[in-house]
Every structure is written in structure tokens, then in C-alpha cells.
């Protein structure tokens, strides 16, 4: 244990002892003002010791101290801010997001310009060793552009991240446009900042978004101006793409204003329509739902040829009911290269390979890296 931590620990013990004494006295001689003052002092000491633990990479000890600081003084915004960094580094994005919102509400001046934690920088573009990131992913994608591939995305890019708390996903627009997908399905985190914000955000992207089984309850059109399907002619074949989501996350993300249609029923109907009425050779379902629901879709809809799923943030490849179901990963660490060989009009073979972006094979795309630099105003945690 460092000398600084030892000294702070002694100071904390002294403060706790003084508080205990005051609380006993206050039963007969109330001195709430002094107690409140000591609680604030104790919170600052916990916060400072937590930061020292953080620097020593003792994340659990740091998180415990930030929690004690918050318990001692719930108005100490910087303690929420610092605890958010711990949650984020430990991949607990939901808790990080909640703490960060509270931190900015309590004390905006502490957080307004402290946009990027180390993990956020690593996630997007600023790392010394290969560890994924948008700038490296663009280079990896571009290495396959000569194949004239279909580029498809299964949702959750606007959020969650600490930076998106401030930018509302602004920093992901140049990333998406550099990757240049042919289409995407909405993820639940695309709705984190409201439907109106998503609508304006979408207009700055250069590709269609799909929402095949959720409709606006007033206009009866696909929710949030999505498309029901998208058809792409490539390599002398016609590909039909639909975007399906599960009901479970809709209530939390949309709250109201939508009509949900069962993804198996809609998937079957749309896939049959695409093949029978639109002369589609191959139907791809982009999904944003949990594995069990992707399995239900694979087992229940023979007309869908390939399922590319998001939401679980865990890269996996499975074969279910003789069709590939492939889950995207997280933080731009990998993507799938899928080769489809058509043997005849109804028979095909699929080969799927994971492309690891955490590799020295892919250097960061300097154009995108420079574009993203403006979002990284500071990399330090403020104490």
C-alpha cells in the first residue's frame, strides 16, 4: 500500500470517529450542520483514495471507495463520474451510463469537457497496441473492398459509451460513413436519446436502416422511418435483407407509439414475399435480439437463408436448422467475412471466417483517426 493511501486511510478513520462522536452528541445537542460538513469532507477523502486505487489498477477497491463517497455525500458529482469510469472499464455499460448521467446533472462543470475515458479512447481510435477500434476496423474493411462485398450491420452503435452521453452518438456518424454499410437494423441503443434525435441522426448516415416488424401506431409505417426490406443486386444475384427485433427491449427503449409484430411470423411472410414476388435469390435477416430468439427464427423460418444478429455483444457462429446464425461482437474488435458460393438456383455453400481487428495486420485509418480526434478533448479522470 502506498504512503498516500495509508495517510488517506488514517484521515478517513479520524473523520469517521469524529462523525460517530458527533452523532452520539446530536441526540441531546443537535449539530446537523457540523455533521453535514464532516460527511462532505469524508466523501472527498473516499473519492481521493478511490482515485489512488484506480491509478494502482485496484478497480474493485476504487469502486468501493467511490460508492462510500456517494453514500457520504450524494451530491458529489465527481464521485459518480469516477465510479462510472470503473463500471465502464469493467464492461458494465448500463451502470456506467447511469452514474455518468447523475454526475453531469449534479456538477456539469466537472464533466463537460472530460469526454473520454481510457476505455472509450481504446474503443474508438486511440491506442498504442492493436485492440480493435473504429479506425483500425475501417482499414480492415477496406482490405476487402476489391471483392465488392455486401456490408451489413446489426445495430447498437449510437450508444452506449461515456462519450455518447455528451455527443448523443455524434462521433459515430463519421465512423459509419467510413465503413459505408449497405444497410443496418436498429438496435435498442439507437433509441437511447429519443426517436426525434434518432431521426435527425439517421439523415446524416448514407445507407438505409431496417425495421421490419415494428410499426408506428399512428402512421402504420415502419417505426422511426425504417424500411421493411432492402434489395441489393450484387455479383449477378439478388439479395433481400430484412431487419427483425425482439419485443423484450422495445418497452424499455420506445415506451409507447409502436406496434410490435411477431418476428417469426413477419420473417416468414417477408422472406416468402421477397423470394416469390421480388425474385430474390437469397434472404438475409439482420436481427437485434438475444440468442434464444435468433434460434427460434432459424428453426421457424425456412425461407431465411442467413441470420446476422446483434444485441448480445458476444461474437459467435452457430449452425441452426442447417443455416448459419452469426452474432457480431463488440467494440469493433472483429467482424465476419462470409463467402457464399451458389451451386445452382437453390443450392449454395457458406464459409464464414472471423476477422480479428486486434491485429498488427491492420493499421489505423489516419483520415478517420484525425476526424475523431476532436471528440477526445481529455483522456484524464478529473479528481
TrEMBL record:
The keyword tRNA processing does not apply. This is Calcineurin-like phosphoesterase domain-containing protein. Keywords: TPR repeat. Residues 132-315 form the Calcineurin-like phosphoesterase domain. One of its GO terms (molecular function) is hydrolase activity. TPR repeats lie at residues 43-76, 77-110. One of its GO terms (biological process) is nucleotide catabolic process.
